[in-house]
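Progress note, project year one: complex with zinc ion.
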Amino acid sequence: MSRIGRARDLIHPRALGAIALAAVAPLVAACALDDEAGGPGTRPDSAARATNGGQFEFSAVVPGVYHARGVGDLVAGSNAAVIVNEHDVLLVDSHISPAAASALLEELATLSDRPVRFVANTHWHFDHVHGNQVYPPEVEIIGHEATRAVIAAGGSNSGRSYESFIGVLPDRIARLEATLDTVSDDSVRAALRRTLDSQRAFHAQVREVVPTPPNTTLSERLTLFRGEREIRFLFFGRGHTEGDVVVHLPRERVLITGDLITAGIPYMGDGFVDEWIETLEHLKSLDFEWIVPGHGMPFRDRERIGHLQDYLRDLWNQTVAFHERGLPAEEAARRVDMRSHADHFDVREPGVPLLTVTRIYELLDGAAG
Ligand SMILES: [Zn+2]
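Model obtained:
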């Protein structure tokens, strides 16, 4: 999952127009899980991008390999990657709900008429796996054995991270309704109403989820050969979660990373922040030109791996120091100052999400799973 969006993410971009967002942005919680700015120079050739007027935008990264990003009112959660093989299709990640996964399947028909035979889950977070149930049993759903274990134990639809993004939906909807009653400007009302409709639909869609774990697992690596294509599934250690798998296409030089590295700052609430730094180091040994992340746009700049390592190292060290001094997590979350990374990440003021510090405190206290 991505970090909670910035203020302008609170209302769907299509509905923005020229409205006075500042008036309403603080009143509602983040509604956008599905996008994160990738920064300049990160987008594949715009001529290769197409939305077809639907819920997803498909960008060709290399021939036959697409980045699919939710751009409509339907909440998609993570990106997906689409790998079209000689006789079949492999998808990486299944979005946040069966409705989102079904919409992707429908729109996929504009790219290929080959059947989806494989789905990879990069990790167990709900926004990457809660569409798994739409695939029939003969589709192989590939993931790390830890990912299967967490989902099978009910971990993808419970716990702190789930509650902070999904459990808050009824409250978020109530606040949007209350806000709508206080706004008179027509364009703001229209934008709020559209967001409200989207969130109500999303709430109904998440209630349809039946968590469905991978039916094919790996512990360190697995390789598929599909015609000319070699598709490697690789686990290098704990990071964003305990079971992050990256998908590497060595011939096409594409690396699909889930949330191990994203276009912005990845969510940390279930991370192994110290081990994550070392896990990222392994990515540097792979041959690739493109990184296709779980959130945000594909990018080519390999230096970003080092930037994220630097960020994680600094975050870890600052938080350890506050922990040693006995500061409560709430205060540490306000005081951790990551502004020295502003050249590479969207950091504008001191402070990090409380869940980030809570998680690091758990790791330090030996209380993390
Ligand atoms: Zn995630």
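DSSP finds ten helices and 13 strands in the chain.
Residues 303-324 form the longest helix (22 residues).
No further modelling is planned for this target in the current period.
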